[in-house]
Every structure is written in structure tokens, then in C-alpha cells.
Amino acid sequence: MATMKDISKKANVSIATVSAVVNQSAFVSPELTDRVNKAIEELNYRPNAIARSLKKKSTNTVGVILSDILNPYYPAIVKGMDDVAINNNFSVILCNTSNDKSRFLSYLDVMEEKRVDGLILANISTQEDLLELEKRRLNFVLVNRRPPGYNTSYVGVNNELAIEIAVDHFSSLGYKRIAFIGGNSEISTSKERLNGFVKGMKKNGLQISNSLIFQGEYTQDSGYASVIKMLKEVQVLPEAICASSDLIAFGVIKALREQGIQVPEDIAVMGNDNNHFSGEFLVPLSTINHPTYEMGKLGMEMLLQGISEGANHYPKQIILTPSLVVRESCNFAHREKVITK
Amino acid sequence: MATMKDISKKANVSIATVSAVVNQSAFVSPELTDRVNKAIEELNYRPNAIARSLKKKSTNTVGVILSDILNPYYPAIVKGMDDVAINNNFSVILCNTSNDKSRFLSYLDVMEEKRVDGLILANISTQEDLLELEKRRLNFVLVNRRPPGYNTSYVGVNNELAIEIAVDHFSSLGYKRIAFIGGNSEISTSKERLNGFVKGMKKNGLQISNSLIFQGEYTQDSGYASVIKMLKEVQVLPEAICASSDLIAFGVIKALREQGIQVPEDIAVMGNDNNHFSGEFLVPLSTINHPTYEMGKLGMEMLLQGISEGANHYPKQIILTPSLVVRESCNFAHREKVITK
DNA sequence: GTGAAAGCGCTAACAG
DNA sequence: CTGTTAGCGCTTTCAC
């Protein structure tokens, strides 16, 4: 493959001149520019970004690490990131850890060796992982999840508020006995959502029953399992269920229906995050919308800004505001009946 | 950041020796190995993959180009690719064209400049795009879509068979008047699926009515719009609708329901591709399963094999077989009634 | 077994 | 304005 040297020979100019026209980094007389461009054309020359990176000590590529691309929460985030990356001439290396810690660590190694200019991570919930990350000399911003107390570059949504809104909605509809079915308690978003539940219940003067709080995973199966568990353990069923994610809500509703419990007639259900398919679920899901595309977009913008500003960068956090989406899973006029087993 | 030179000084060995122990590319006495490793530890050294790439003329990274990460068909494909990439010490640069041709071209440029070792493309349907691709000196394999007549490295699913299976299923249930609602007719999978429809209808001795064949996009909105169009244009409604993708089927069912037409009681609907949420759609969708994860996995395996084998590589095509998934959207005992407007 | 040295393709002083 | 040159950090002969 042709190199600048080949071009310089062919065009009878110095290699520096070639570089200057390729990068438009200095004025070159129209005549020479022409000769160079012609040679480039003829030899089908492409600058070698690897060589340039070695010299410039920057790669114009960033890594994106997330835990599970199959979770429908992420594709929009990734799209947001990719859109701004390409607009700024950056490439993104995608790393899908599949929730595997050792895989996460090996991605970190690779990213460091490949000298990415920065990293966006959507999978950091613990101090431990953060420490691991900070060991590397990498620019980074966290997205969606964050360890407790973390207060530098981050963009996420107000998870606490999300569930508060959900509880408010339930309360305004007259529901009082409300269950919460959450995700993995290690994950920051999951904690924040549970906090939001507690806060919302208190705010509305509603009583919290510990027997109606469940934690599991951010999956449909987990939501399903939690309901089965609840049905077994609890004497008086809740009037409404607040799920920590739409995927969980899907599982919840599935389990309920299989047990002959109608949604929303018997029990109301709210989701959270506004999955692409929530509107067309077995029963159209009322939920809380999360601006995921924005999150990815802003995350990447923040990272690139950090990269270009270097030490002058002033770190910040952006917290996006979620909003209520009313559909059919909890619109039923509330009755006073209490369901017992 | 420490370099091999730093290590070599600190450990009092030559730079070549450092390289040898880092890469285990030659025997080094245990003593020197120790000294080197100690120095590496102390200086927190990380090999510079950029420099290595420049020298070795290979980057251990591949590009993946696809048209729309938001389409639920792709995440599993990407996961399959990423899984095998990491296992082989490769990174993947994700490129999401958003169906934008100029963006596709600029991705190609970038991939060439960044000297990726290969490319997987899931968005190539036309001769034109293929030509554009072949201009670059890049190893590549096509996945999912392919231009007519293309017969080198490819992995996809038997789209024709998929729809044939769907038609067979309808036929076995007694449905005769069947509509087909397809995607963009430019896209290879879309054509193949339409062919499968025609083939299946003929095979089952069923009459094809051109007024019952629609093309649009692989989206819910498009499926919705096609049904509205059909309802307006057609005198005698079909008994069953064969959708080219689940997303389309979602739109179809939504439109039908809004018009007061029950699925499957009034009209049966089959999807295609087995979207993650098809089982929990408003009406659980009977569909055809596509092994998407496998497709990504095999595609990446094929590419990496091609890369390592170089000119000795013997190109091939892998066609995965889809399978019927029966749920509720076309199980209704068929009645002889004909619906007219 | 280990070290010296050339060179991958490019950028950026620095001279002229 | 244009050319010369010294590296960027690493791999890889080729001597010793």
C-alpha cells in the first residue's frame, strides 16, 4: 500500500509537503498541491492512521464498555454515542462484558494497550470497579450507573425521581398497598430506584411493607420469579406493583396473568424505562420514559470535550429527567376490594 | 508512560530482550525474565499496541458495519461477533450507518485508514455498495444481507425458506387467501422473503394476488401503513397475513386491531425473525426463528479465519436454517367466512 | 541467549 | 513555501 514516501517520489516533492496537503496543515502552492493530489489519486493512497497515532499520541478512538447489549436499554445509548463520535471523527470500540468481571478487566487492558483516547462505561456501580478503572491512565466518563459518592464526569437519569413519579401516579389513582420489584441491589440504578420508591411512598403517606419489596435482576425472568415468590409468601396481595424496569414489569405481568390475576383490573403495574415495545406489550405498559439516546449522546459529548480540553477540563454531572407515560397497565378505576388468597 | 526502552534500562537488558519476554517470542533466561518482569511491574508498563501494529502491519481490530442498531434484529448479532472477537484477542469497532449512504462511505474510509484487519458488513444489498467495498483493500465477510449473485464469504439465514415455512403453516391451517407485507424491496433479505412467499404459495397450490402484496420498510410504522393501505384498496380482505419481519407484524396487528379486526379470529398473522418480545406482544406472535446470535458468531469466525489464513483462505457461505415458532397469532380454527367491507 | 540497529509511516521542528 | 531530519514505540533480523 502506498505511503507518503511513494507519493512524494511520484509527485517530486518532499514527504513533508505531502503531509501538509493531506492534513491541510500548512499552505502549499496550488501547483504542488495539484501534483500531490494527482499522485494520491493514481496510487490510491490512504493515510495510515496507525502511524499518525503513534506520532501524535492520540488515536481518535474511544472505547465503550457496557454490560449487556441484549438489554434493550442500551442500543439507543450506543446509537447516541456513535452519532456524536462519527461527527467528531472518532471511532468507537464496543465492549460487551456480558456481566463478566474478568472480561471487563481484560477489556480495560486492551483499551489501555490500544491507547484509546477515552472510555465511556455504562457498567460501573462499585467502588471496586471504579478503582480498577482509575488504575489505568484513561480519560473516562460514566454513564447510567455510578458508584456511591462518585461525583465527577457522569451522565445518567434521575432514577430516584423516576420511581417517585411512578408512586405519585399510583397514589393519585388511589392505590395504597404498593409492591416494589427491583433489580440487582449491587447496581447503582437499582438502589436509586428503590430509594425513590421509599421516598415516594413516604411523601404520599403510604405505608411501606418490607414483605412487598423484592430484588432480583433486570430481566423478565427475574420479574416473573419475584411475583411467584410474592404469591407464595404474602397473605394480602398488593393493589399495585412498581417494577424497577420494563423488562421486570413484563415478567411481572406474565406471572400475574398466568396465575389468573388481571392487569390492571386486579393489580396495577407500572414499568420503568419505556422499552421500545412497552406500548405493545400484552397489556400496554404505563411506564416512565428515560431519554436513553440523549444519555449516550451527552455522554460521548462530555468525553470528547474532556479529551480535547485535557487538564483544563472542568468535570460535571448531567442528570436527565424522566417522565410519566400513561398507557393501560394501571388505569383501572381503583376498587376498594382487597385480594386475599 | 513507560516504554520498552525504559524497561530495558531499568532491568539492564536490551530492548530486544524486553520484547522477547513481553511477547514470549523467544527464550530468555529465567534470571533476565525476572528482572524484566519486575521492571514492568514497577513502571506499570503497558505495551503500546499502536506501535506494534505499525510494525506488524496488523491491528487485531475489525470493523462491524450495520444499518441500524435500534432494530432488535442486530444486538444479538453484535453480541455473537463480540464474543468471538474477544476470545481471539480482537476488538470490534462498531459503525452504525443509520441507513445513510454517505455515512457508510465515510465509515469505509475510516476503517481503511485505521487499518482494520477486516470488516463484517450487515448492510450490503446492492452491487453498487459491494463495488464500493471492493475498492478498498479489505478483508471482509457479509452477513445477513448480500447483493444478487454474490457468492463469496457470507453468513445469513435462509430467508426464502423462512417465509415458505410460514406459508406452509398457514396452508396446513387451512388459510388460502394470504397477503404478504414486506420490507424495502432494495434489501436482499426482503427480496428473498418475497420469493419465499411466492414459492410457498405455488407449492401449496394457493393463488397469489398481486393486490395483496405490499412492500415498505422493516419497521412497525411501515407494517401499520401497509395494512391501512390494504384496507382502503382491497375488496376482499385476506384470511391471513404473512409479515416479512416481526416488527412489520407488530404494525400489522396494531392497525388491524385499531380497525376492529381481531387477530387471529378475523385475520391470522405470522411474523418473521422471532424478535425478543414477540412472545409477549399484544397477541403473542407466531413467527419464524432466526438464529441471529449464531449468525454473528459464525460471521466473526469466518472473518478471523480469513484473516489468519490470508491468501490460502477458501471462501464459503453459511446459510442458517430458520424454524417455526407457533404462538397465538394464527392458531384460530379457520372459518370459511369471507370478510368484505 | 542476548544485544545492536534498521525501519514500520507519519508529524513537526527546523533550516533554508 | 518547501525540504531534511529526528523520532513516536515496537519487532525482527543478524551478529556476537
Automatic annotation (TrEMBL), chains A, B:
Q: Does the keyword Lipid biosynthesis apply?
A: no
Please name the InterPro entries in this protein's record: HTH_LacI, LacI/GalR-like_sensor, Lambda_DNA-bd_dom_sf, Peripla_BP_I
Q: Which UniProt keywords apply?
A: DNA-binding, Transcription, Transcription regulation
State if DNA-binding is listed as a keyword: yes
Under Gene3D superfamilies, the record lists: 3.40.50.2300, lambda repressor-like DNA-binding domains
Superkingdom of origin = Bacteria
Q: GO MF terms on file? A: DNA-binding transcription factor activity; transcription cis-regulatory region binding
Supply the CDD domains for this chain: HTH_LacI (cd01392), PBP1_LacI_sugar_binding-like (cd06267)
Residues annotated as domain HTH lacI-type: 2-56
This protein is called: HTH lacI-type domain-containing protein
Q: Which organism is it from?
A: Neobacillus mesonae
